[in-house]
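Subject: mismatched residue count in predicted assembly?

I count 373 residues in my input, but I want to confirm that the predicted structure covers every chain. Input:
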Amino acid sequence: MRRLPPTLVRAALAVAIALPLAVAGTSPLLAWRGPVYIAGCFAGVIGLALLLVQPLLAAGALPGAEGRRGRRLHAWVGAGLVAAVVLHVGALWLTSPPDVIDALLLRSPTPFSVWGVAAMWAVFATGLLAAFRRRLTRRLGPGLWRRGHLLLGALIAAGVILHAMLIDGIMEGWTKAGLCALVAAAAARAILAGRRRRPAAGRGR
Amino acid sequence: MTRVPQTRRAVLAAAAAASALILGPRGLIAPARAQGLAPTETMRGGANNYRAGAPIRDRIGGGGFLMSGTVRRAGDGAPLEGVRIQIWAHTTEGRERDPESHGATLTDASGAFRMDMPQIVPAFGQPHAHLAYDADHDPNGFRTVFLRPVMSSRSDTSLSADFVLQPA
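Triage response: the counts match. Full output below for your records.
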């Protein structure tokens, strides 16, 4: 793939993340929400933004963060994603316990909840998979570990995009759709690249 | 191979049945068609943040948003007068669980109720209201029902929800 100038890539990423966040910061809904609820909302938006960075790091597509450095950053951003999910769900729980309990028990009336909950479990599973990567790759082989990680990544991206798009919340429609489209494109690219890049020691065909 | 059109037909039939179920009660104004009117089921999440026994109020807070609806009897569809309906929502003036966000009203002779309340704003992803017919706070003796209607747009300034109650 043709390489774009590093400054352009970094600037584009900064805009792709900062613009939806900034526009969400001007949402009229914020006036009618308390600080804990607002923190929960922004944890969700930040989680969506991290989901754009994550596949780009995995694919080594960010200038200055290729190879080992990119993988280290990928792990840190992954930990940040877990933290964002915990904050998001925790703050919403404090805001309205019955709504979050309904969502977690998959009996919520809102169609987006089930996608959010699926993505949440996939994020937690990915965190565990990453935390025990050495032990798991020794047991299962790197190919199976990678395929599991990619599958969970795909589930997270799809779940979060559906969750975000169906919500009438603090994100503005166009910037939300734009960020979701970028997340989808980045995830698809990383998954396709990851499927192609099978390690020799793996169980790939 | 023939399974595909059959499945599609089944889906269409299910959709038609579902829309008949949803649209049915609204069209039942003629008494003759009201025979066998099915009771309203409690909606998912309808009772969330309910604070039982809110006072009867002329309006909730400053008003400006109209919540309205009707209450009828299951079976014959007769309008029910003097039935207590409690209403609450996340509005420009408060959260669902705030006591000031809750208010109750009684239906008139035509079975209609109206509540002037602050503008409902989206909360937890949807602009929605909550309504309760609570058997414990009404002497008419019907079964408890909780509704959770959703506005088609956050800029709507009114919302309606209808109850069809069955004797407890």
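Residues 200-205 of chain A have pLDDT under 50 and may be disordered. Marking this ticket as 'not a bug'.
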